[in-house]
Amino acid sequence: MMEDLNQGQPPPPESDELEDALEKLMAARESGEPLRFSADEPGSAAGDTSIPCPQPDEWLRLAAGEMDQAAADPFLSHAALCRECGRHLRLSLQLRNEGVTPGEASEIGKQGSTSAEWQRRVAKKLARTPRHGAKVGSRIYLWVGTGVAASLLLAAFFLTWWQRANAPARLLAEAYSQSRIFDLRMPDAKHSSVAPATHLRGGSEGREPAPLLDARARIERHLERAPHDPYWLQLQARADVLGEKFDPAIDILDRLLAAGPVSPALLADDAVAYFERGLATGSENDRATALDYLRRADELAPDDPVLLFNEAVVMEDRGQVMNAVETWNRYLRFERDPRWLAEGRARLAALEQKLDRMKTHESRMEQHLATPQAMRALAADSGELTAIDEELSSTLLPKILYAAFPVPADRSRGS
Known about the structure:
Elements: H1 15-31, H2 56-64, H3 69-81, H4 83-97, H5 102-110, H6 116-128, H7 132-165, H8 168-178, H9 210-225, H10 230-242, H11 246-259, H12 264-281, H13 284-300, H14 305-317, H15 321-334, H16 338-368, H17 372-380, H18 382-387, H19 389-392, H20 397-404
C-alpha cells in the first residue's frame, strides 16, 4: 500500500466547495461589488486582501488542497480582487483536474508562456507575420501545373490535327480538289472546277497530285498488315478511281458489296466507278448500273448531299429530266457548302431551261402533227423538216403512222 505522504496535514477542502468559492470570487471581481462571505462559507475569515501577489507555486498548493481553510481565505480574497492571480488560480484548478502532479504544475506555472500577456503578444505577432513563402510556393506550383496542362492540351490538339490532316481519306479528298477530273463528287472534297485535260486516263504520263501519291503509300502500308480490311480496300478503290483505273476499282468494290455489309458510301463509290467507266467506254450498261446503285444508296441515306449531287447528275445523263430536277431540289435543302451549293443551283437552272425547251418543242411538234393539213405544211417546209427529221424518224414515227393509217375499231376486219 502507498504510504500517506500528507500525514499530519488537515484534509483538503472538497473540490466542489473550492470551485464554488472561486466562481463567486470571479463573479464579484467582474461585477465590481464588495466581497462578502457568510460565516460558514469559505473565505469568511478576515484575510489581508492587500497582500502581495503570491507566487505561482502557492496557487498550486492551494488548488492541490495543501492549505487549511484559514490560510486559503486570504488567497481567495486576493484572487477576487487581482485579475492576474485569479487567472493563476483558475489555471491551477484546471491542471489539478487534468491529473498534473504538483511538481509538474509548478514547473509549468514558472514558464512565461502561461502568462496571458505573453500569449497575447505571440498571437498578435503570428497574425502580423506575412506568408510570403507559402504564397510564392503556391504560385510557382500553380503556374507550373498550368503550363504542364496547357502543353499537354496543345500536344494532344496538334497530334489530332496532324493525324486528321494526313489521314488517307482526307488526302484523297484533297487530291480530288486539286485536280477534279470528272463531274461526280468525292466524299469530304472541297469544290473545284472540272479540268479533265490535266490528267491522262490510266496513263503513266499523267501527273498525279502529291496528296494522291501520299495516300496511295499510306494505304499500301496498311494493306500490307491487313490485306483484307474492308475500310482500306475501299480507300484503295477510291484512289484507283481518282487515277482513272476503273476496272480494278470496280473489282474491289463489287467484292466488298458481295461480302457485305452494304453501306451508302460503298454503293456511292461503286456507282462513281461504273459511271466513269461507262463514260470512258460508252457503255450504257455501266451508266445504268451506276444509277441503280445511287438509288439504293439514296434509300439508305436520303439526306447525304454528296450522294444526291451524283444521283442528279447521273439521272440527267440517263435522260430522266423530271427526276433529276426533283433530286436537285432535294440536294439544295441539305447542302451547306456555299460553292457546292452554287454549282447545284447552276445545274438545276440549266436543267430547268432544258426542260422548258423540251416542253416548247413538244408543243410545237404536236401542232405539226395535229392534222393532215399541218403535216402537209411541215412537209413543204424543208428547213423545219430537216431540223426535226431525226426525231420524226425515231420517237415520233409511231405517232405519224397512227395518224396516216388509223387502227380500225374492229380489228377482226384486218389492219
